[in-house]
Design brief:
268 residues, alpha+beta, Phosphorylase Kinase, domain 1, 2 domains, 4-stranded antiparallel β-sheet, two-stranded antiparallel sheet, 49% helix, 10% strand
Amino acid sequence: MSPTDYTRFLQEQWPRQQPLMARHILQGEQVWLKRAGPRHGMWRYHLLGAVARVLHLPLLGPVINPGGRAAIATELKRLRTLAALGLRVPQVLAACDDAFLMRDLGGAGRDTPSLGDEIEAAVAAGPAAVLALWRLGLDTLDAVHERGQYLSQAFARNMMRCPDGVMACLDFEDDPRRTLSLALCQLRDAMTYVHSTALALLHAGAQDEARTIWMAWAAQPIRGADFQKELRLTLQHLAWLRHLPRDRRLGRDAQRMRAAHDLVMGPV
């Protein structure tokens, strides 16, 4: 299909599409159409900002996603910026103020699993299998950070393995750099990734070895002095997480936070 064909399809389809994101097959090619949703209220961001100030944790400072057309514009800009630097993200095929069309990372009939799903599925295979996958996420962050960039939502579920083995990243509706320093944006990536994978590492019996890998990764010179400073301050102000139970008495979210604490700071 030509660029004109993609644009015509987008203009005809987005006003009729009910879901915010939907898959379409165009002449055998799998594509995704994402349209603008409603604008988001700001109260939750004000609340998060207050919490960040009370806890002395600028890392938790609100990264605003206003929704609507603004979110579409932000995601388009981030996708194009990262793609121009040689990073694997979905290819934008056509765009307008209210929606955009992107090529599927795998293609029709080709599986593109998320790293999060792969890690969870590998838990039963033991620590070596999980750690091999976990390193892929750290390598993905390295590829992004080496180019002076950052992700938006660096959860393992937003890292996808393409059919050629290259890792791709998704979900760029917000831009952390608008409110956070580059060092904090990159630290936010790292802590988000750790938070999203810590329980799987724990269940696989891989947490101790993962901690060694994490410490070596975080200490690399590429991180820079500002990253190291923010990491030390963040860990100091998160020390209270050691009081959370390791089981699910307070829910899975609390259990995940405790697992993340033990991964980056060690059990106490």
